[in-house]
Amino acid sequence: MIYVSVKGERVPALGFGTWRLSGEACREAVEDALSIGYRHIDTAQMYGNETEVGAAIQAAGVDRREVFLTTKIWPDNLAAEDVRRTSEESLRRLKTDYVDLLLIHWPNERVPLEETLDAMMELQREGKTHHIGVSNFSPDLFRQAVAHAPIFCNQVEYNPFVSQQALLELARLEDALLTAYRPLARGEVLSEPTLREIGARHGKNPAQVALRWLLQQENVAAIPKAARPEHRRSNFDIFDFELSEDEMRRISSIGQRERTRVLR
Questions:
Q1: What residues contact residue 183 under an 8 Å CB cut-off, 6+ apart?
Q2: 32: domain CATH number?
Q3: What pTM was estimated for this model as a whole?
Q4: 3-state SS of the chain: helix, strand, coil percent to 5?
Q5: Residue 17 contacts residue 31 (beta carbons within 8 Å)
């Protein structure tokens, strides 16, 4: 496993995302992911699967302290009283006393950012979350957040097709984590010629190359979702090879010539 060191915390760089996993399939997937060796699990209030994620962590027999667990507050719940109420509901569903990381899922201009962050910091002081952060925040909003609170993470879409250079530079400047969701671009990476060529050289598939590219970057973690067991295992099989500097540059150039996702 590769770890990312941020603000004195070591975070497993490869996590398991649970968006669009639900019911028994979600519970089985998370339990299987933990048995494979994943130790970073990502969920959210909006996913509707916190109960299943919590049950899986308990059933897996893994020490809770070994699992870096993230959940996210939905934008409708960012007023101070709603932050507390819904976060405590999340903890009950997850069957845990704390999460490792609590994020604002999306910004909501109708609620002052400072109000939300103050409520989250209060939960942090109480030990109900170890760290607080944001998701889908633009560079400007991220700057506003870090000026007010100890922001640990910004979770955004990031993959070889989507450049996030500005946010990466800010994350490194602030010693924050940038967590890449949709790291495999919903399967688009599988047909990308550069990734296929580099993968053939290493005996790896394009998805494994894309994930390795992310994990070799400073301050970056990735949380691929995989509904099928074989994909969960394949995504985890990326720790026995390393990309060269030239290969890293070639993959980075894909996003620069394809498209840049600018969060406004």
A1: 158, 159, 210, 211, 214, 222, 223, 224
A2: 3.20.20.100
A3: 0.95
A4: 50, 20, 30
A5: no
**pLDDT of 213 above 80:** yes
Provide φ and ψ at 78, rounded to 5°: -95, -5
**CB distance 194 to 249 below 8 Å:** no
Q: What stretch of H or E contains 219?
A: none
Structure tokens at 11: 């975070």
Q: Are strands 151-157 and 162-163 parallel, antiparallel or unpaired?
A: unpaired
**Is 3 part of a structural domain of the chain?**
no
> Which sequence positions are flagged as catalytic?
47
- Is residue 262 very low, low, confident or very high in pLDDT (cuts 50, 70, 90)? very low
- The two three-digit tokens of residue 230, written as one number: 């074989």
Provide mean pLDDT across the span 231-253.
98
Mean pLDDT computed over every residue of the chain: 96
List, in sequence order, every residue forming a beta bridge with 203; answer none if it has no partner: none
Beta strands in the chain (DSSP E): 3-6, 9-12, 16-17, 40-42, 68-73, 99-104, 129-135, 151-157, 162-163, 177-181, 220-222, 259-260
Range of the domain at 58: 8-260
**Domain contains 1:** no
Provide the pLDDT for residue 129: 98
The count of domains in the chain is 1
